[in-house]
Every structure is written in C-alpha cells, then in structure tokens.
Design brief:
It comes from Leptospira ilyithenensis. It is found in: Cell membrane. It is a single chain. By secondary structure, the chain is mainly α. The protein has a domain of about 90 residues. The chain is built from 10 helices and 4 strands; from the N terminus they run E-E-H-H-H-H-H-H-H-E-E-H-H-H. The strands form 2 sheets. The chain has a two-stranded antiparallel ribbon with strand order 1-2. It has a two-stranded antiparallel sheet with strand order 3-4. Helix 1 crosses helix 2, helix 6 runs antiparallel to helix 7 and helix 9 runs antiparallel to helix 10. The longest helix has 26 residues. The mean pLDDT is about 85.
C-alpha cells in the first residue's frame, strides 16, 4: 500500500495522499454521472453542482464525527495525575498523554468513518431538496447511482492507502480477498481484504442501479429504499470480518493489547474474534429496517403506471 505519493517541495509536505486522490476521483465520477441522470429523469440538472458540494461537505464532516464516536472511550479516559476526564481533552489539543486527542483527531488527515460520511452527506442533500421544495423522492432516486460508484471508488482508497480497515487473520489464500498487511503487523500477517471486498460489492450494486433498476420505472423512492437495504446488508456482512470493537459485547472481547506473538503479530489477530455488533453494524441494521419499512408502506416494488 502507498499512503502518499512523494512530491519534492520546500515546505516539508510529505506528498499527495492516495486516499485523498481516490476520494477526489469518487466525487469527480459522481459529478459527471449525476447531471446526466437528472436530465434523463427530466429533473433540473442545474442542482447537481450544489448536490455534489453538499455531498462532499457532509461526507467530510460526518466521517470525522463518527470517527470521534468510535474512539470516544480512548479520548475521555481516567488518567492518573490528571484532573477532569472530560475537561482536559476539551482544553488540550493532543488530549491525555498516550491517548488520541479530541481536537487533534477531529482535524487530522486520517480517521474517517465512511458510514458517517454517507449519512451526513445524504442528510445535507435531503435538506437541500426540502429547502428548495424539490421532489425529494425523484431526486433521491437519481442520486443513488452516483452515491454507489463514489462509495466503491472511495473504498479502494482505503486499501491503497493502507488505512487499517482490514479483517482478522486468516489461513486462506484467495487473490484479492486476502493480502499481507504490512503496517501495524511487522511480519505481514495474511488478513481478509475487507476494503476490496466491500468495493467489489459496491461496484456490483452500482451496476444494478445504473444498468437495470433505474430503467424499470419503479415507484418514486424505490431506488432509494433498495439502496438502504442492499448497502445495509453489504456493510453488515463485511463487518463480521473486520477488526472492530463491539458497542455492547455479547461475549468477552479479545485482548486488544498489542502484544506480539512468536511471528511478531498482535495476539488478537490470530483468529476470528467477533464478539458483538459494531457501530457500523447497528447503523446497517437501522438502514435495512428503514428500507424495508419504506418498501412495504409504499409498495415500492411496484412500477409506475404508464401514461396512456
């Protein structure tokens, strides 16, 4: 994996972030596809620029906010010799010694939770529809293919940059689905390649929306509801393979202390260790339920009546 592309400069800048480049590519592809889909559905394509901007803004804000929630227990901890478990991280940029800081984490270049970005981005876009009194259901259906391809490309950025959203160790040797992670693990232990797995799934449901579903004349909001269900199932499934802590452990969690075993790898990566639903899995379940309710209440599997 390549975290940065080095560029000589007099400012000490480390170079271009590969994750940022893939993220930018995701938004560029979305900005190309969205106005075409709006025009095809006889909607106003002039809204596409604002929709892309709000999508980017919401993605960046939401991804950071959800990352803070994910490491909340590491930021606000009881550290001997320091007063104010909650006040100290708020008043010191780097937080407690040896722990991630609230502000340094919030404004760092890394630490992004895609689900947070997706939810905030979609919220900003829907608020835009409401503010301008647009047909929210019709416009949302038009946005979904662009969201899908953007998510697929963004996930590849996670893999290329080696940001750490890997799976647990495995003895399997499956091309693309297993790789040797040379980052947190000195000997390159084989782990499940969850970023590429999720990217492949996202490309598949993008193809479904782009080349079949949008031409089926489903009722308005059907594409949006289908996306919630399909994306929710995809993320729920992949999280069973990812190294993530449970929000409420069902069984005793593994020892997450970075103690190397005989091969030099952290001991908690020696096998399967799922011990409860992660933050992303609870969100996935909520998306699936919301999508199913929308489908059932609106009978969104039906198609619009063709005009005489």
């Amino acid at each position: 994996m390549i975290d940065r592309i080095p560029i000589p400069n007099p400012f000490g800048w480390e170079g271009l972030s590969t994750f940022s480049l893939l993220m930018m590519l995701a938004f560029l592809v979305g900005s190309y596809a969205l106005p075409k889909e709006l025009a095809r559905k006889k909607l106003d394509p002039s809204h596409s620029d604002w929709l892309i901007f709000l999508g980017i803004l919401g993605t960046l804000i939401g991804a950071k906010v959800f990352f803070i929630f994910e490491i909340w227990d590491q930021i606000f901890v009881n550290v001997p010799g320091y007063e104010g478990r909650f006040i100290y991280p708020l008043t010191h940029w780097n937080g407690f010694p040896g722990q991630p800081g609230l502000w340094s984490s919030l404004f760092s270049g890394g630490g992004l939770v895609f689900f947070g970005g997706l939810l905030f981005g979609m919220t900003f876009i829907i608020l835009y529809f409401k503010y301008f009194k647009l047909d929210t259901a019709a416009y949302l259906d038009a946005v979904i293919p662009s969201v899908s391809i953007g998510y697929a490309i963004g996930r590849l950025g996670c893999f290329i940059s080696g940001d750490g959203c890997y799976g647990f160790a495995t003895d399997a040797n499956i091309p693309f689905f297993v790789f040797n992670f040379h980052g947190a693990h000195p000997s390159g232990v084989p782990v499940w390649n969850t970023p590429v797995m999720e990217s492949i799934m996202a490309f598949v449901y993008f193809a479904y929306f782009q080349y079949w579903a949008r031409y089926q004349n489903f009722k308005k909001l059907s594409i949006g509801a289908q996306f919630l269900i399909i994306h929710g199932i995809a993320r729920l499934s992949i999280e069973f393979l990812r190294v993530n802590k449970a929000v409420f452990p069902f069984i005793d969690p593994p020892n997450m202390v970075n103690i190397p075993d005989a091969s030099g790898n952290p001991t908690f990566l020696t096998g399967y260790y799922w011990h409860g639903f992660s933050q992303s899995q609870y969100i996935s379940l909520a998306l699936i339920i919301a999508g199913v309710i929308m489908m059932v209440r609106g009978k969104l599997w039906q198609k619009e009546a063709q005009p005489a």
